[in-house]
Design goal:
Elements lengths: L3 E2 L4 E3 L2 E5 L7 E7 L2 E11 L2 E6 L11 E8 L1 E3 L8 E3 L15 E3 L16 E2 L4 H4 L4 E2 L3 E6 L5 H11 L4 E9 L1 H13 L6 E7 L4 H20 L3 E7 L1 H14 L13 H9 L3 E2 L5 E9 L8 H9 L2 E6 L2 E2 L5 E2 L13 H23 L6 H18 L7 H15 L9 H7 L7
Parallel strand pairs: 9-15, 13-18, 13-19, 14-15, 14-16, 16-18
Antiparallel strand pairs: 1-7, 2-3, 3-6, 4-5, 4-7, 5-6, 8-10, 11-12, 17-18, 19-20, 19-21
Helix pairs in contact: 2-3, 4-5, 6-7, 8-9, 9-10
Length: about 425
């Protein structure tokens, strides 16, 4: 029987402090007040002083209310019954379905032993050419999507959720506007993808501590399914909201702030989540795609800056599309050497000519005379942006590669592309040269 404490020593916002012994960091407690019962989580220990973050907020709690420690950290039910369901950050249903209480597992465990991991070697197809062709996503990879506010990053995640060739999707939303939550829910339902999806959502109006729980709950469930042999894709949005929640709690706890007010362990907190990406030997895998919004479009902001040191590349979402410059999948060469023999050469050739198109655009904007080559490049760039870069394009990898050759043939003669002769003979479309 856990001891009950009936004296709360201080209340600061959503954080309460009690004197207690034998308590562990991140243990759960139940706070009983006149308004009912609420869960709280231990967020700081100093001597016998225990600080707890109250899930439902500190409003209505008085110093005479009871605190009962449960003796364990946050747990989440794990079973196939999670599929097709929507929960909050605390694991409680948001979809009016029944609460799940069987087979409870602890969240926020350690990362997988490197000896149990295998080298990433399988591609995750998404149907989005700017990913599949130019920066292939690989099983067990961890990649952020760097985006400024206003970009369609949630729309991109929803498309990936519907189209990615994986066994299941776990979608973790942090600080979502209610409209964004409904957008994900409706899109997945209409697209028929909700049945293979588990959705953990924290909206901007929910208790802030639940925002911190969303990645841990999502990844704990993903790990269990991966151990059963499932290929799991974890989509998180938005890790900047997660970091801001950390900052808010750190300020309440009067911690000494680091860069721009974020806590000094920001890197470790982010890394402990991203390092959950794994390909298990003899079992399944966890792949992580996480949106990181950049306040003021500033990539040196602490959250994207720290993220870049942890992850294996990044996607830059700009002007409504994934930019080829700056975007990078460091593991793409692990898989695109095995897709089709023209994949790597076509990828390199198209980006090289697109860079030349950008230079021609600059010359044109400055009023320089356009050569015939510049004219070809301008035509190529416009078609490339419309038929391959646009996020609305939804075609398999092989069709995207064929489309690349068609764009080449529409704009250039074979020898102008810089492609190898054997590839030109095999893949050049049978069109009249222009």
């Amino acid at each position: 029987m856990r001891k009950v404490y009936s004296k709360i020593e201080s209340i600061a916002g959503n954080v309460i402090t009690v004197s207690a012994d034998g308590i562990k960091y991140e243990d759960l407690a139940e706070v009983s007040s006149a308004h009912g019962r609420s869960l709280a989580q231990v967020i700081k220990l100093k001597d016998d002083k225990v600080a707890l973050q109250v899930f439902a907020g500190g409003r209505g709690i008085s110093t005479g209310d009871e605190v009962r420690f449960l003796g364990h950290p946050m747990r989440i039910s794990f079973s196939d019954n999670l599929l097709g369901r929507i929960f909050n950050g605390g694991g409680q249903p948001r979809d009016n379905g029944p609460a799940l209480t069987e087979n409870m597992i602890e969240i926020a465990g350690p990362s997988v032993n490197p000896a149990k991991r295998i080298i990433p070697r399988n591609m995750v197809r998404t149907g989005i050419p700017m990913i599949d062709v130019f920066n292939s996503l690989v099983e067990s990879q961890k990649l952020p999507i760097f985006s400024s506010s206003g970009e369609p990053y949630n729309e991109l995640l929803a498309r990936i959720a519907m189209q990615a060739e994986v066994d299941m999707i776990i979608l973790g939303g942090m600080g979502l506007k209610y409209d964004d939550y409904l957008f994900f829910k409706d899109t997945l339902e209409e697209g028929g993808a909700l049945s293979r999806t588990i959705f953990f959502v924290h909206t901007a109006s929910d208790p802030i501590v639940e925002c911190l729980l969303v990645p841990d709950v999502s990844l704990a469930v993903a790990e269990q399914f991966a151990l059963q042999g499932k290929k799991v894709l974890v989509l998180l949005t938005d890790m900047t909201n997660f970091a801001d929640a950390m900052k808010e709690i750190a300020i309440t706890m009067e911690q000494v702030p680091s860069n721009r007010g974020y806590p000094g362990d920001l890197y470790s907190q982010l890394a402990s989540r991203y390092e959950k990406a794994v390909d298990f030997e003899g079992a399944g895998s966890i792949t992580i795609l996480a949106v990181t919004t950049m306040p003021g479009d500033d990539v040196t902001h602490p959250v994207p800056d720290n993220t870049g040191y942890i992850t294996e590349g990044q996607f830059y979402l700009k002007n409504g599309r994934i930019e080829p410059f700056g975007s990078l999948s460091r593991l793409k060469q692990q898989v695109n050497k095995d897709t089709r023999e023209d994949h790597r050469a076509l990828m390199d050739g198209m980006i090289k000519l697109y860079a030349a198109y950008k230079e021609s655009m600059e010359k044109k904007s400055m009023g320089f005379r356009m050569s015939d080559w510049d004219t070809k490049l301008l035509k190529y760039g416009e078609i490339f942006e419309k038929e391959l870069m646009a996020l609305s394009v939804n075609i398999p990898l092989e069709k995207a590669l064929d489309k690349g050759w068609e764009i080449f043939a529409e704009c250039f003669m074979p020898e102008e592309t810089g492609m190898r002769t054997e590839l030109l003979k095999k893949f050049w479309p049978g069109k009249e040269e222009k």
